[in-house]
Design a protein that fits this description.
Elements lengths: L3 E5 L4 H12 L9 E8 L13 H25 L4 E7 L2 H11 L4 E5 L5 H7 L2 H8 L4 E4 L1
Parallel strand pairs: 1-2, 1-4, 2-3, 4-5
Helix pairs in contact: 1-2, 3-5
């Protein structure tokens, strides 16, 4: 059975460290894992309430906005010869990551973290911490 890995990215240096880490350590797995690259877009405010903005227009907007966030992660995985599936979702990052991990029946979530602790971690409301607490599967945090 192939391991299914969810790899959320946002083009930040910490998320790209997670991508590099996974690309470099795929040999840890008996067979090449099924990698799912995920970018979560924040919802456009009032988009649903505006009658003149169609669903297709919104979908295109979210896809276009996600391209730069996915570009470097895709390049890293491509250069490492790793295959992957790209997912773009809309919502609050931690909630979407947890939901997608469940929907995919992921075996592992690999994601970057700033590694902040104490007051900084509390104030910033770390997405990684929320995912760690709510994920239906193990989470590997790359600092």
């Amino acid at each position: 059975m192939t391991m299914r890995i969810l790899l959320p990215v946002d083009a930040s240096p910490c998320s790209l460290r997670a991508v590099r880490h996974l690309a470099e350590h795929v040999a840890w797995f008996r067979e090449a894992p099924d990698i799912h690259l995920l970018h979560v877009q924040p919802p456009v405010p009032l988009a649903g309430a505006l009658g003149h903005v169609g669903k297709e227009t919104l979908r295109e907007h979210y896809l276009e906005e996600s391209r730069p966030h996915l570009a470097e992660a895709s390049r890293i995985l491509d250069e490492a010869g790793r295959t992957y599936t790209v997912h773009v979702h809309v919502g609050l990052a931690a909630e979407v990551i947890v939901r997608v991990a469940g929907d995919l029946t992921a075996d592992l979530v690999v994601m970057g973290t700033h590694g902040r602790s104490g007051i900084a971690g509390l104030v910033l409301g770390s997405v990684a911490n929320q995912v760690l607490q709510q994920s239906p599967c193990p989470v590997l945090l790359v600092k």
